[in-house]
Amino acid sequence: MKKFTRFIRENPRIVLGLALIACMLLFWLVGVMTIGISKAAPLSGPPDMPPSSRYPLGTDSAGRQLLPVMIAGVPLTLEVGFLAGGVGLLIGTLLGFTAGYFGGPVDSVIRTVADVMLPIPALAVLVVIASTIHVLLSVEIMALVIASLAWMYPTRTIRAQVLTIRSRAFIEVARLSGESHLKIIFRELLPNLLPYLAASFVGAVGAGILAGIGLEALGLGPQDKPTLGMTIFWAIYYGATLRGMWWWWGPPIVILILVFMSLFLISQGLDRYANPRLRQS
Amino acid sequence: MSAAYVVRRVLLFFVVVWAATTFIFFLPKLAPGRNPVVERIGMMIATGGANASGMQAMVDGNERKFGLDKPLWQQYLTYLGDLSHLDFGYSLMQYPTTVIEIIRGALPWTIGLLTVSTLLAFSLGTILGALLAWPRAPHAIQYLLPPLFMFSVIPYYLFGLILVYLLAFQLRIFPMSGSSQLGVGSSFSFGFVADVLYHSILPALSIVLASLGFWALGMRAMMVNTGGEDYMLFAEAKGLKSKRIFFGYALRNALLPQTTTLALSLGTILSGALLVEVVFNYSGMGSVLFRAVSAFDYFTIYGVVFFIIVGVALATLILDLIYPLLDPRIRYTKG
User: Measured between beta carbons, which residues in chain B are less than 8 angstroms from residue A264?
Assistant: First the structure.
């Protein structure tokens, strides 16, 4: 318990960020149990209603009740982020470790491919893919498509990290004492890079959510689920701003700001945790 | 700047564009047994409405080039050939207009909005971040920090939605949408230019305000690092003027990583800016893409995406060529 309070005092940013995420999950859980998400479908209320006691967040032009839409949208947004960020980082870690640890021709190939693919704007490629496989697109497939274009940056930075650690004395000792490559990678390299990987993961989740929302706001997200980005797409499509319907686009923006803010806090906190020198500034 | 460096960077530009276009050619083909282009045109003919004979001609033309009877490599070569002279075919949504004509009308708007707002945000944010970490800067600047960080976590276009509501819908200071008043011809009169600027303030403002914090934050961290370097102590011990130390020593050295970050974030910036155009119904590439996606106009989508890819690659190339001017270490070492 004492340890726990000390962790909170020393890492307020991480705790605050995690608490924000927990609040959102709680909002979803309580929402599903009390209100349910069945009213997120079109025609479950009169169109264009401002917030009232009957429709807490109002309704959109298709008669979707927006509070249930938000309840359904929160976990979908987090799912896209965690899946896309997780898979992207996993690929990046595998390639980064392979390139950094083994070096040689494998390294050159991985580095060249990553360098060539890095300047390709992900959204452009995603738009082409999403518009052609549109009908088949689910939340999971969208996340995997995003992940397929999210591994280059982690690969490059993790490779650089591995290179700096590889030449240190304790790795040399492990190698000379006859440990296998796998053992060195998992028992010596990986533990040293964990804080760094955690920070990268948070960044990758944020990037994944951003790409997913961007696709959805263009109308290219999964069609069968009421995602937050799709709500923004419909709000733009039906000119909600021109009609002053703030309750339509406001709630998804507030939720997204909270999501990005919590990720930002966590990543800053992790930076400080891994690099104590930053704490003074 | 060594010639080898320039040649390598230019070569990388072409490889990047080639890889990206190859990617978007083959990836949709992996979806089994479907040809969305033909399906879409077939649907348009079936529902009537569109110019049916023109559509049929388009299907035939498409079949001649990319028909399923042709081997894939032949389709690929045709595709690359068409791209090399910017032939994207006709737009499906505005049939007799070609894709390149639509893009030609939209491109200047995007380039104008994007370069001005990005350069503004980058330079303002960088200077602000530098001042934030500078002990002798006015203290009032510190109060800017929390709101700027707040803005920087919001995607541009969501920030744009908020600005439209507050400044255009509620206060009616700025126009809500569009890039110029309807009916005003595009003659370069003073009124037209003023009108265009008036319409672009809000979209530009949402990009600048939402990205200022990002640049300030990065620069501040770099300045804190350079502040601890020995050459800073030496400059101070030499008795150099505070201004000289700030610009010539601290800022100059912190600028390098900042430029690298700019090169790496170009894709994200552009994606955000395209969606800002959608929010403001600004007549640039973003709005064209939005309409093309809504209508499943594949030829226009491919055209816009191609220009996005080339644009980002070109901007990266330009930054890569500027980089040696900032960093002597690259200028003097070969290769």
Answer: 149, 153
- What radius of gyration do chain B's Cα atoms show? 24
pLDDT per residue as tens digits for the range A137-175: 888 989 998 998 889 999 999 999 898 888 888 888 888
Closest Cβ opposite residue B176 in set A237, A242, A261: A242
Structure token digits, residue B102: 């639509």
The number of beta carbons lying within 10 Å of the beta carbon of residue A225 is 16
Beta bridge partners of A59: A65
| Residue contact A124–B293, C-beta within 8 A | no
Let me know: does A79 contact A39? Beta carbons within 8 Å: no
What lies within 8 Å, CB to CB, of B112 at 6+ separation is B200
Which pairs count as long-range contacts for B122-125, CB under 8 Å and 24+ apart, including other chains? B122/B211, B122/B215, B122/B262, B124/B208, B124/B212, B124/B215, B125/B211, B125/B212, B125/B213, B125/B214, B125/B215, B125/B216, B125/B219
- pTM, whole model, 2 decimals? 0.87
ipTM of this model? 0.84
Distance CA B187, CA B257 (A): 42
Whether chain B has a CB inside 8 Å of the CB on A91: the answer is no
